[in-house]
Amino acid sequence: MDTAATPHSNYLTDGYGLKSWLLTRDHKRIGLLYLFSVTSFFVLGALFAAVIRAELLTPAGDLVASDTYNRLFTMHGVVMVFFFLIPAIPSVLGNFLVPIMIGAKDLAFPRLNLLSWYLYTFGGMFTLWALVNGGVDTGWTFYTPYSSAFSNSSVALVIVGIFINGFSSILTGLNFIVTIHKMRAPGMTWFRMPLFVWAHYATGLIMVLGTPVIAITLVMVAAERLLHLGIFDPKLGGDPVLFQHLFWFYSHPAVYIMILPAMGVMSELVAAFSRKAIFGYKFVAFSSLAIAALGFLVWGHHMFVSSESVYSAMAFSLLSFLVAIPSAVKVFNWSATMYKGSISFEAPMLYVFGFIGLFMIGGMTGLFLAAIAVDVHVTDTYFVVAHFHYIMVGASIMMFMGGIHFWWPKIFGKLYNEFWAKVAAATIFLGFNLTFFPQFIVGYLGMPRRYHAYPPEFQLWNILSTAGATVLAVGYAMPAFYLLHSLFKGKPAPSNPWGAKGLEWETTSPPPTHNFDTPPVVTEPPYNYAK
Amino acid sequence: MSGTHSDEPSVLQHHFDNLGQQFEASSLGMWLFLVTEILFFGGLFTAYMVYRLTYPEAFAEASHHLNIVLGGTNTAVLIGSSLTMVMAVYAAQQGARNRQVLFLVLTMVLGLVFLGVKSVEYSHKFAEGLVPGPNFRFEGDAIHAQLFFSLYFVMTGLHALHMIVGIGIMAVLTVFAWRGRYTRRYHTPVEVSGLYWHFVDIVWIFLFPLLYLIDRHGAGG
Amino acid sequence: MLNNVTDPAVEDGATEREPHLVPLRVYFSVFAALMVLTALTVFAATKDLGAFNTVVALAIACMKAVLVVLYFMHVRYSTKLTWAVVAGGFFWLLLLLLMTLSDYITRGPGWLHFG
Description:
The complex is a heterotrimer.
Chain A: H1 18-22, H2 27-55, H3 66-85, H4 88-101, H5 110-132, H6 146-150, H7 155-182, H8 195-227, H9 240-274, H10 281-294, H11 310-338, H12 347-370, H13 372-378, H14 382-412, H15 418-444, H16 459-489
Helix pairs in contact in A: 2-3, 2-4, 2-5, 2-16, 4-7, 4-8, 4-14, 5-7, 7-8, 8-9, 8-10, 9-11, 9-12, 9-14, 10-11, 11-12, 12-14, 12-15, 14-15, 15-16
Chain B: H1 8-11, H2 19-54, H3 56-63, H4 68-93, H5 97-128, H6 142-178, H7 188-212
Chain C: H1 8-11, H2 24-45, H3 52-72, H4 80-104
Helix pairs in contact in C: 2-3
């Protein structure tokens, strides 16, 4: 049902003033609190990247000192991984949409949800404090014994920040799992749920099972630094590789926390802009669970050259090949959905096309890295850097952007300028490829990561990469303008501007505080587009 | 003072449809939190496993400096506190206010006894110079014994921290129980906190044999 | 009223709260068993069973944990979902322990030895 103007009362108008936002229990408002926070951290992480790329324009390490460079790439990684990529889609879009998509009034634990945001913010404050104190130089991976015994940077502060932030993640995941089990509307069976919800369920499982392990690992490093309790100290017979096992037990599944929600967004966008039900719905649903489970069994592929046993390495290598399969299943199903669909090219769909190609490249280069023999050659080079940026930026952030655009009318009740949105999407795609494709090449040629000085023969690729980063920055900046503009001057959005299927499109834009004026009863299959 | 139906609207949160749904959500939520605690302590158990298997003699030697009597007593104390906890839940299920309060208080008391014994043990370790760091002294494989004691302090320290939180939760529950808040229809916080308490007990059930009972058949037993 | 519609709030559990009262003698029996097992584990530690000392100690600890989980934590009387969550948690811990161990026990001489 279309409404010509923003309805009288909705979650945005239900209470004004700082207190009504800072003490809210409304999952939609909490999603917006997160939107503000994660965007701020994204800008910070991007600034670090800008300095890094500026330094890498020339072969000599001449813009910043080596020690400063170490701090730059560390803080870039810490901020982007822990304070942007892990929370972005789940805490912004997941928080906002999961209850609405299953027909619930809120998440199971609204106060824990607010606490999640405060923990995230508090953790972020510690990290900013560390930054002001000079930052950390260990790499975002904090390998011991450098991080536990030798680094004289603000390791403890950052560790505390990440530890606190970890609990934010755990509570979010816990909230999603309980909500999806216990708060579905009448008729909303598991197999009628949108795949976005399945994706967030699987993500929640990873958050709950994995995050505690990095939490305790950081506690051990902090204990070693502050109390001189040697657990990873080689002088006491401690094994630094044990740190790596414990660290990667979480940090590998963490990358699936970063991509599964993006895959959830993909399913929604592909269906909406092909006007067709997702092909192989159950396969896509179960593939999310498979990725979550298998993702916990592959962490040793980060340690092929760290002196883990070669037999263990072979097992991890094989499992790493296997984990690619459910991801491929998704790509096949999305493609089959688009085949003979009625495709339109609005901005969100442009991000979909960007995702498909870039995710495939990122995923397949992951297979190269999973092969031990290849990995020995390219590990710790820019090849790896390019691989993970293809997934994290080329796929994950693309879907963050795609999702923000798709649901913007629902969240704010305003329509943004479609022309500039398309321009931004195209700019981002071009900028991204120019930034990161040369990095595959220069990495394969041997340029190590985390170095700011390199042999002159690598300079051309670095210049291309920095040029790309500039274009990418412009592309990311553009939505800030037209999206903000839409808030003030945009046309009011109808309930369902895209003609999409899903409970969120059956309520007003923006939704009322309790999500639905009348609680929904579900009788249709998901993605019930007319043939 | 038993529960009356007029209490129910105030305990049903607005986003739930009914008390059954609310209870199931709370219970599932607490279980998921306990799963995170399994993995949280699990990282320490992993480190412990690796090092004990790598340095078995040093770990055995170091373990002999722990006091089985105190450790065993603490194990019995915690098991007792789990019993008083289930009795508190049982009382809450029946809406029996005074019994609830009694058993919650007993649970707290036993928890405090545990912490008291633990502090005695810690003070012994300080006195014997068994705290890792510059003042560590050990006859024997001192280097690897420090690994044992690092893990000992982190594992039992983290466990004690969880006990302290647990006692705090029991204190809050006691106040609310005294005020008659928990009835036959609604006593979710008591049940759910009981789950947490039992979990802390289970962690100790594993810590005790792993830390205290290595190779006690030799001269050190 | 609602044809072919299942209410998840009902299908997954109760709408009302009828607490299941476990008979007190069950609690007391479990308590007694836990105390006996504690004494047993101390006793077993004083006997030289070689490599089996650790196995016995862990087995007894697992038995105690199972008793606490099933009876004190009511899992014996809980939904399948609760069982799945508990089992899943311990299973995941096992994954962490065993896969980490797989590195150490295959590193060759100079690393782990048992007993």
